[in-house]
Every structure is written in C-alpha cells, then in structure tokens.
Amino acid sequence: MNPTAPHVPQIRLYQEWLALHKGLRFDSYDALWRWSTTELDAFWQSIWDYFDLCSPTPHTAVLARNVMPGATWFPGAKFNYAQQVFRHVKPAHDAGFSAIVSRNEKGRHVELSWPELRRQVASLALHLQAQGVEPGDRVAAYLPNVPETMVAFLAVVSIGGVWSVCAPDMGTNAVLDRFRQIQPVVLIACDGVTHGGKDFDRLGVVAELRAALPTVRHVILHTNLAQDPAEVDRALETAQPCAAFGTATARDDAVVRAFEPLWLPFDHPLWIVYSSGTTGLPKPIVHGHGGTVIVALALKTLHNDVGCSYAPNSWGERFHWYSSTGWVMWNAQTSGLLNGTTCVIYDGNPGGPKDQPDWTVLWRFAAEQRVSFFGAGAAFFANCLKAGVDLSTCGDLSAVRALGTTGSPLSEEAQNWGTAQFAAIAKNEAQKDIWWCNISGGTDFAGAFIGGNRELPQTPGRMQCRLLGCAVESWNEQGQPVIDEVGELVCAQPIPSMPLYFVGDKDNQRLIGSYFDTYPAGHGRQPGGGDLAAEAGAVWRHGDWLRIHPDGSCVIYGRSDATINRHGLRMGTSELYSAVEALPEVLDSMVVDLEYLGRESYMPLFVVLRPGLALDDAMTAKINGAIRTALSPRFLPNAIFQVAEIPRTLSGKKQELPIKKLLLGQPLDKVINREAMANPGCLDWYVAFAHQRAGAAHA
Would you call 443 helix, strand, or coil by DSSP? Predict the structure, then answer.
C-alpha cells in the first residue's frame, strides 16, 4: 500500500474521536485550540485516552497543581518511555516493518527490526543493572546519530536511569561543561565519527572525559569507526578499561526475553538536555517520562501528521528528520518509535564532502528508503536552494508527502523552492502542493509551541498555527497580548513537558531566571485575558520574537535575547567567550547573532587583542580554531573584527542585546542608555559599523 497522502489527516481522526467519545465538536481550529488551552484537564485527559496510554495504577488528577514552575501532572500514574515503545514490537513486526533504518556517509546500512531493538535494549539494560545502575543514576553518552544511540537511550531509561547525550562533533570543553554538572556513573562513547568525507578519531576525547569525570565507574565503547576485527580490538584496547557495546547488547536468553521496563512515577526524570543562556554554564534541563511522551505523541501525530506505520490509514509510514545527537530534533526523531513509526536516520554531513559539496545526499537516501515524512533544519533547505538542487535527479521521491522544518525561520524563497520542486516531479495530489510542517519549539521543553495542521491553509514563510495545549501568545512590552504585532513569545499555561528542574539549581533560581522572571506572577495566566492569583506563578517567556497573524498563522523572527542560534542549534554566548578568551592574545570579546525577521543568521565576533597585536590571518585562524576545538565548527563566526573595547554596563555586563538591536537597524538612543554604561565612548565605533553594514545591505 502506498503511504503517500491523501490519507485522512491525523488531526481529523482525533477530532472525529472527540465527537464520538467525548461529545465535543468544534467549528474551527481556533475553537479547538482555545478549548485545549483553557480546559487543560479535559484536553490532556483526551490525549491520554486517544493514545490509550497505560499505567498499572490510576492517576488521581490530570493537572493537580496549576502553577509555573512546578505544575503537577497525572499524580499516581506510573510510566516508562520504553514501555510505550515496546507496545509496538509485535504488531509492527507482524506487519513487516522495521523499527530503525540507518545509513552513514560510508554507506553502512543497518535495519533494526522491532524484536531486535527490544532484544538489544533488554541486553544492555541488564548489563547496566549488573554494573549497579539504579533508578535516578545518570548515564552520559558521547555518540552520533546511529541505531546504537537509540538502543542505549531506551536501555538507560527502561531501568530508570537518566539519559544525557552530546554529539561527537563537540569539543572536550563543551562536553565537560555539560557532563560535569550531572555527575554520570556510566559513560557510553564512540571511537570516532565520519563527517564531510573525513574520519575523526575520538578515543583521545573519551580518555579526557573519563579522566575529568570522577563519578564515572564504567565505560562502554561503541566502535563506530573501527569495522574489521583487528581495528575493533585496537580501539577497545586503547579505551581500556571498558566494555564493548556489541558485547553488552549481544545477550539473548530467557532473562532477556522476559525483561520488562520498570514502571516509574509519571514525573520520574527521563533525560537531561542542555540549552544555553547568555551567562554561565549550559542549563542542564531535566524532563520527565510521562510529560515528554504525552506531549511528543500530540505533537508528532496530531500536528506533524506522522502516523503509525502499521495503521491502515498511514500504512508504511517512514519518518526522517535529519539531526545530530546534539540537537533536540534527535529526541524528536526517536519519538517516532513511541507511535510505532519506522524511523529513518542518517549520520554524516547532509551537504556531502567538504571539498565536493553535494546537497542531494539526503534526498537520494530518502528516495531509496521510501521516506514519507522528510524533515531537516531550515538551513538545509536554504542550502539546497542556493546549490540549485534539482529533485528530479535524486531518484523516486514519490513516497514523500510532507516536508518538516525547524531550527530557524524558513524563508519564503526556500519554501517556494521546495514547493516548486515537488510540483515538477509530482506523482500524486499530495505532491502538487506539498505540505510543509514548519515548527518552532525548543530543547527547553522538548516540544513545539507553533507548528503545522494539514487541514489549514499554508502561506510560505509562516507556520500554520499555535499547537493544541500550548497557550502561546505574543506580548508587547506592557505584558499585553497582541495580534499582528511582533512581541515576546510567552506560554500562559503549563504543558506536561516543561522542565522538572535544572540539575544543581538551588531553589529553582536558574529555572525561574531563564523563563519566569520577566512578567509578574499570576499576570496573564488565563489565555485570552484575565489573571490567576500570584501563587500560580508567572508565564513562560521563551526568548523568541513572535507575530500571530489574524488568521492564526505565526512567524518567528529570531531570538529576543542574546543566545546564538546557528543552524538550529542554540549555544550560550558565555561558552564561546570561554573558548576565545582562553587564548592569551584575546583580552575581551563579544558575539551577536543577527538572525531576525527571517534573515539568515549572520554572526560577527568582536575581539579586543593585547596591545601591539593585529587581527591578521594567523590570528583569525587561531580564534576560529579555538572555537572549532572547544565547541563545534557550527559556531564559527561569519566574520571577526578587532575593536578597542567591548561595551559594558556599569556592573560589567557585556551589552550584547543592545548591540544586536543596533546592528539590526534600531536607533542608538532606543536601545542603549549611555549613562548606564561603563565605557560609552566605545559606542561610536559600533554605530559606524552599523551604518556601514546598512549601507552595504542597500547597495
């Protein structure tokens, strides 16, 4: 059976179920959305019932405590992410579908059946238990986007361990800034990766991580680069003492077959992800099993329209979203397993080798593997447009019925390019006007606030709607909801996947400072107007500029704070400063990311060098090298400029956001108060630089 639409949209099936089982009918999506954000108990209970979520003990309430932060969801319920995945093993396998289909740059192709996924997860889970891993213990992973990473994740969380992963393209310092905070007891790592046609050995980094993480008492090594037995033996010998991932997942006996994931409290910690602010270390954000799963099912199924592979309505569904493990879209890709969907993953550079760029790699892979939902960062589609990719040369893409984007605003031009490409090769009605599922959310709550609805009109450059259950509004500077104006993106009611807490965050001070300290407690807590009591807490301020159009469609205009957003990955400016200012030649630095109003990200770095030094090619290369080594090549600046001073407040804080606004064309007197500055005289240089950039843009 061909999986390509038109099949019945998943959100239509849900609304038909609401009418049949709950007696609820809505004459518009807006009416449905308003119900979902005001009748929180009824909506989230409907999601629980619709997806037939299971618990050996009943919950005593849906939202027992409506407060932000600290909402209490489904008390009394027991849950496990892996339990939800394992529900699909038999029916998906009986229908003939794989759980995971994987390819890397070297052409290594792996297909994991559902029973084999379960067996490997059980084997590794038992191995971890034998090493003394208990519920609540943290397991750190330094792994690429391969099936072994999904297996490791499910094994860890099946026994109540708390998962945290960093991508192997991240340097030692960036990884340690994350893992040191969480004190892991086990490290699961790889020997290296291939990217852009080159192999990168990571055994040295693994040794550094082990030495710098004294709480780690066991290491498991996945030989990702080494393939023949002699190479594997050498890699394992170098990493000793360690266990081989292949051995730890090889067990197949009665105990493995009888293994069942532990039933855990609904809010038991699932994973730790990292989102960086403008100061301090990356924020180690903890999400819970139940909240993550219920939000992922609502997002992936109802809004992304990704169906179960063995359900007649979405038979043969194959879900691909290109990501590295350092991006929350890896978590989103993995969540396809929650609904019995075949996940199709690729590890490597989507643009091909560095010396011979090829932006058809993923398209050819998708054609070969009959992908039905094709997702990637907005920058990927922009690069395909610039490279002049012709999809008619990429094989049979007739199974593709939907395109997904996130990470940064998708330009009208890129969306029009993709629409025209599919119209030219259309084999069915769905491809004549391909559906774009453009979403915006965040690592912070492992979900999306704004996204798609296959039944709504689509306008290039916009997202179709605010998501069900997400009381998203755009607020002006007075904290009032506005329509058709750019304002701060806020969420005025809790959703189940909001963070449980940050690791090591005394009295929730970092959590509150990150999302909840901008607006008065209680203000605006009821969507559409009205306030709750101050005890209910504040609204969630996300840090994005948002415009909600009168028809409900939305545009994200980039970050409203100074956080860097490069190629869909967020990085705190403080992390970049740690790398750059560690160089003895650099006295001070400041970086701003000028992604705004849908523009492509442009990130200049300003540096103050020691007296007598000049920013020549060698110094530029040294600074870029420090960033590449400590963080990732993804965070290299577009340009580096030598300046006399970095503008600072009287308290010494770098004035990143005012300079960002200045470079985006706002008048100086509107963005900065000279009297609050320690060094107002340095502003003349930045004003001149802003005028020069504006002139060049209009030339």
Answer: helix
